[in-house]
Design brief:
Distance between the termini: 35 Å
Largest sheet: 10 strands, mixed
Shape: globular
CATH class: Alpha Beta
CATH superfamily: Alpha/Beta hydrolase fold, catalytic domain
Structural class: alpha/beta
CATH architecture: 3-Layer(aba) Sandwich
Length: 320
């Protein structure tokens, strides 16, 4: 665990280089809109509904994707599965019956999707299909090219298209199980930068909501664009890698319904990677946020403040 945390911390420190590389040749990316949209306090764009009340077993599978033939993007997918809830994710387990919203998750620099399984499997158990690409340059074993983070919003959009296509693919285990009209993006650290990019310079209009863990707007800006998409930021006030103030500045620029979960004793990643009280608070809060924004569950929104502040481990700035 210590080795993994050290790798994440070291890799994320490289992300600061984005701020000083504006004079170099950056990877191609979509141009930012000329101006951000007007602030909105509207409800989520999805139809009102109710999230599942039961917990699901969790299945896991791999998709060997490749964008443009030279960007390998193996995607790990966690999904609600048939069987008894509460066990470890089962590889290629039969999918549960129903149509489930999709959440695209982006890992941090030097990390892997599997590093976040504790959190992502809890999302799947709550009724979400979670797809997490492993990026070619910034994932474990990559060359560590931090500027490639600017290409990652397009990677996520590509992977999203491929995942959603499974809903209509004959013979696929997820055929008829995905809801293409209920989609969110989330990410940690450099993956948080990637996620912000999906709502700014690389806006993907299919996205209804976003969750940013310990992220900043370095390289992708804060010109939030398109239809209102509620955002939840999660940041430790003792973050030793990405300064809390930098995350707060990106949060403050969001013009849409938003909330920020702040952990006074939280560091850069322990609340996502280590089972314990902080992870439970983060998991419960993010699940309620996803239930509200993707299932249109108004009761989940009402529960969110209590989940966020349970045990006195976090504070919630709530503008949802």
């Amino acid at each position: 665990m210590l080795r993994r945390r050290a790798a994440l911390v070291t890799a994320t420190l490289l992300a600061a280089g984005l701020a000083g590389c504006s004079g170099g040749t950056a990877p191609a990316r979509r141009a930012a809109p000329s101006s951000p949209p007007a602030a909105s306090t509207s409800a989520p764009p999805v139809a009102a509904g109710h999230a599942p009340t039961e917990s699901f077993a969790v299945g896991v599978r791999q998709l060997p994707l490749n964008r443009d033939g030279d960007r390998a993007l193996p995607v790990t997918v966690w999904y609600p599965a048939q069987g008894a809830a509460g066990g470890a994710p089962e590889r290629s387990a039969p999918a549960a019956h129903g149509r489930f919203p999709v959440v695209m998750f982006s890992h941090g620099l030097g990390a892997r999707p599997e590093d976040y399984q504790l959190l992502l499997s809890r999302w799947a158990a709550a009724g979400f299909v979670v797809a997490a690409p492993r990026f070619p340059h910034t994932g474990t074993g990559g060359d560590g090219n931090v500027l490639d983070v600017l290409n990652q919003p397009a990677d996520v959009s590509y992977a999203l298209s491929q995942v959603l296509a499974l809903d209509a693919k004959a013979g696929d285990p997820l055929r008829g199980r995905l809801d293409p009209d209920r989609v969110a993006a989330a990410g940690h650290s450099a993956g948080g930068v990637t996620t912000i990019g999906l709502f700014t310079a690389g806006r993907d209009e299919r996205l209804d909501a976003g969750i940013v863990f310990a992220g900043t707007a370095l390289g992708v800006g804060t010109a939030f664009a398109g239809a209102a998409a509620p955002q939840l930021f999660v940041h430790g006030e003792a973050d030793e890698v990405v300064d809390y103030a930098a995350g707060k500045a990106a949060y403050d620029a969001v013009p849409w319904p938003k909330a920020m979960l702040s952990l006074p004793k939280g560091d850069h990643g322990r609340a996502l990677l280590t089972d314990g009280g902080a992870l439970r608070v983060v998991a419960d809060t993010t699940v309620e946020f996803l239930r509200w924004t993707l299932y249109g569950d108004a009761a989940a929104k009402k529960r969110l403040p209590a989940d966020a502040t349970r045990g006195g481990l976090a504070n919630l700035d709530d503008h949802l």
